Amino acid sequence: MSDTQILDRLVAFGGGHGLFATLRAGRSLLADRVIKDLTAIVGVSDDGGSSGRIRRAFNVAPPGDLRMAITALLPQGPIGENVESILQYRFPDSETHSRFDESLSGLEGHVVGNVLLTALWNSGASTHEGLDLLCSFFGVQGRVLPCSSAAVEIVATISGLDPEQPSVLEKVSGQVAIATTMGTVTQIQIEPHEPPPCSEAVNAIGLAGVLVFGPGSWFTSLVPPLLVPSIREAIINSSAQRILIMNLTEQIGETSGYTAVDYLNSWGKIFPEINLDLIIVDPNFVEDQRDCEQAASRIGAKVFSIDVATCESTHDPKKLARALRQAAIELGSK
């Protein structure tokens, strides 16, 4: 394996701040010519905040996670930083106003990047065309694509919502509701079960040399895009290396009490036909290394321990870039 382009074409899956960190790492790898192509495949299930309001008002994909991915891939340097501050600007909310207040603009709580994407879609661009246009406006390095060309709904089966009846199962719908559940997620699905595919995303998976999953909110950011049948099938058929960046901690609500082993067991249950090759874990956030290695082996993977965390217990993009370089060397060419 040569020292350049050791990762070839990289496709990263997820949403929110977890995917943001991975894409910032990928941006560094692009700049250093370690990879020759970078694509983000992003979930379209957000139903809260500005994204949820836009989704309901205009019947479009929720733009928030897509906007976050775009900002992660902006050019490095002062110009990119200035554009990022604009795209991420959120108008003050309306909590201090009466709904009858004539000073309300209708932009309260919305994010500039969300509004721009919605304008492009309402002007006739398809979901991926609008994303490509916005990326071209600002010299984005890489490509951002939705997992489906239309919004999807997450539906979870949850136990323990009533502490007095812990074995009773109940259905909960919506990303926000699932993310904040006080029960235990036992099953996850999307509706519609077969949303319209994004052929560009499927093609990107087919061309990839490495598929990177995570980190991120497990049941509400990472898992849903992989439940889209066209995406799932493309991953199954892909010959690419498959790397999971392990979450550092539990997420209070949807994965309360989860350890690294719990995350890996969950993957095996939800995606029994999708084995992984490597699990990137930070040794400072693994309770039992041996248990983790055993859980990884059940889904075909090796554990690669390396420091990837910031002092605030979030993933550091620079450390992730180094980890992905070394992980590729660890795996070797396929």
Within the largest sheet, what's the order of strands? 3-2-1-7-8-9-10
Order of helices and strands: EHEHHHHHEEEHEHEHHEHEHEH
Structural shape: globular
In what range is the share of β-strand residues? 15-25%
Mean pLDDT: 93
Percent helix, as a range, is 40-55%
Individual helix count: 13
Name of the CATH superfamily of the largest domain: CofD-like domains
- CATH class designation of the largest domain: Alpha Beta
Multimer state:
single chain
Do you know the CATH topology of the largest domain? Rossmann fold
Radius of gyration from CA coordinates:
20 Å
Profile the largest sheet: 7 strands, parallel
What is shown here, in short?
The protein contains 13 helices and 10 strands. By secondary structure, it is α/β, with parallel strands linked by helices.
If you had to describe this structure to a student in words, what would you say it looks like?
- By secondary structure, this protein is an alpha/beta fold.
- The chain has two domains: 8-152 and 189-331, Rossmann fold (3-Layer(aba) Sandwich), CATH 3.40.50.10680; 153-188, no CATH class.
- 40% of the residues lie in helices and 17% in strands.
- The chain contains 13 helices and ten strands.
- It has helices at 16-31, 49-58, 64-72, 78-87, 112-122, 127-137, 175-179, 199-207, 218-227, 229-237, 260-270, 289-297, 317-331; strands at residues 8-14, 35-42, 143-146, 153-159, 169-173, 184-191, 210-213, 241-245, 278-281, 302-305.
- Strands 3-2-1-7-8-9-10 form a seven-stranded parallel sheet, with helices on both faces.
- Strand 1 (8-14), helix 1 (16-31) and strand 2 (35-42) form a beta-alpha-beta unit.
- Helix 1 runs parallel beside helix 3 and helix 5 crosses helix 6.
- It is globular and about 60 Å long.
- The termini are close together.
- The model is unreliable at 1-5 (pLDDT under 50).
